[in-house]
Fold this protein.
Amino acid sequence: MASEAGVLERLDNRVARYRFGLRLGEQGRVASVGDGIAWVYGLPSAAAEEILRFEDGSRGLVFELQAERLGVILLDPAANVTSGSLVSHTGERLEIGVGDALLGRVIDPLGKPLDGLAPPEPDGVCALEVPSPPIIARYSVSRPLYTGIKVIDILIPIGRGQRQLIIGDSGTGKTSLALDSIISQAGQQVNCVYVSIGQKRSETALVLDILRRHGALAYTTVVVAEATATPGMKYLGPFAGCAVAEGWMRRGKDTLVVYDDLTTHARAYRELSLLMHRPPGREAYPGDIFYLHARLLERSTRLAADHGGGSLTALPIVETEEGQIAAYIPTNLISITDGQIYLDGRLFAAGILPAVDVPLSVSRIGGKAQHPRIKEEAGRMKLDYLQFLELEIFTRFGTKLETGTAAKIKRGRLLREILKQERMSPLPVEFQLAWMIAYNEGLLDSLDPKELTARLRVLEEQVKGQLPSLDAGRDEWLAKLRSWLGPMT
Ligand SMILES: Nc1ncnc2c1ncn2[C@@H]1O[C@H](COP(=O)(O)OP(=O)(O)O)[C@@H](O)[C@H]1O
Ligand SMILES: [Mg+2]
């Protein structure tokens, strides 16, 4: 035990003598390089997340601090770093240029252009890793963020500053839903960021094409860490996208960020952690995998007016396998976010699109941001819908139904038709309210569900610009709706 005391004493002495500060004179050397990382010896005062500079001018990010050596993420893929290269401190943190110059641009997680244009000229910088705003700097979520998607705006509403998970198997429409939400922000004064993590180049090209065709790229920045990028770049992608949005948020702007997707992000982080010899935990993910996504998503918020007053709404996407929402990464994300939109493969196959499973989807805070008139109508609709879904199960057994039940099921089927929506066709919230009131008042009951979508579409064209405002009285709405729908029924 004497030796233990001796060790402790020596440690105490060293700690007492230690002076914090950067030792710019220190020089390190690269021991080995590979898979986008380097091991470096000899920079004892290096800090986590510090930027290091290699002999050839390229940069690295300190990721893993060990007693004798540093695990460093290489930030320049074309760098000429080899074992033996000299390394020095910079004392800097990783930052990205922010500002309106980034609108319409495609960049990598370090801010370099990927669209073949000149580098954007930012009017500020934001660090990729910052603490999330403290509680006193936040307002609670109280203003709506309209996605233009009926089933969401009505039944699972999202508020500005909310974190809403989009969850579902591959091919259930997660990316489509997120892109539709971005397209719907035209004219809503919301700047968007789409972060593409580990997708194939062809998939990202498709996303860009959709955004461009709908004029949505004009108010969007796309951050890409493609499938072939190093695990380090994929790990940084969401943090870069978040920082770009924060740049706007702190200047009072509302923003929407899509992380597509965090399953891939978690895998990249696992790969990086294994490369850096961090001990693997459950499913070989490192122990801090929850903290990784918690610290990213905590940065979505609505800032108080004296802290900038903007907001950052996050739509993280997580991909499940065989609908297993209870798997490790999905449950982590469900517990971090303020609600989830669950997309179901069976609904998708049955042509119920968007394939949102309403009973399994929730928005824990978005209801507070709903307009009171919409909230009132939506409440009635949601009850009807949930009741209908339960009743519909019985019809499968061929049970003879009472007349009341049969009528409820008929109305439920009508509602399901109303909530169906094609891709890339956001519906303004005034129309959503119109169809809600019409449904709740039974004005659509005599329509054939099969014809409903087409009829409503025609009507939407005819009465465009003639709708009352959301604040108008219910009677005014009803009178208008009766006059339009009267001839139909
Ligand atoms: N509301 C919708 N209506 C029609 N087709 C849709 C709808 N949503 C998604 N799709 C189609 O489903 C396919 C898969 O969608 P995608 O968004 O890529 O799924 P995920 O991101 O979940 O893998 C795409 O071909 C897309 O066009
Ligand atoms: Mg997708």
